[in-house]
Design a protein that fits this description.
The protein has 72 residues and is mostly helical. It has one domain: Winged helix-like DNA-binding domain superfamily/Winged helix DNA-binding domain (Arc Repressor Mutant, subunit A, Orthogonal Bundle). Helix content is 68%, strand content 0%. It is built from five helices and no strands. The protein has helices at residues 2-6, 10-19, 25-32, 36-50, 55-65. The radius of gyration is 11 Å and the shape is globular. It starts with a helix and ends in a 7-residue tail after the last helix.
Length: 72
């Protein structure tokens, strides 16, 4: 759903969902098996595609745009 709404790649979508519970970038990247630098690159692209500037702003947008997302 995030890919359709915001044009995110599968990797970007996975990171966005991993960030939603309030985890830091490093923890989310580690859970996904990517380096911190790859996570930063994905996050920068996500912020650009969603017209947000901070991780907290992104998470708020995601919960507003996709309220039915269930967090594990």
């Amino acid at each position: 759903m995030l890919a359709r709404l915001f044009g995110l790649t599968p990797a970007e979508s996975k990171l966005a969902v991993a960030l939603m519970p309030g985890k830091c970038l490093e923890e989310s990247a580690s859970e996904l098996g990517v380096t911190r630098e790859s996570g930063r690159t994905h996050l920068k692209r996500i912020l650009d595609k969603t017209s947000t500037h901070r991780q907290g702003e992104l998470v708020r947008l995601l919960f507003t745009a996709v309220p039915q997302v269930r967090l594990r």
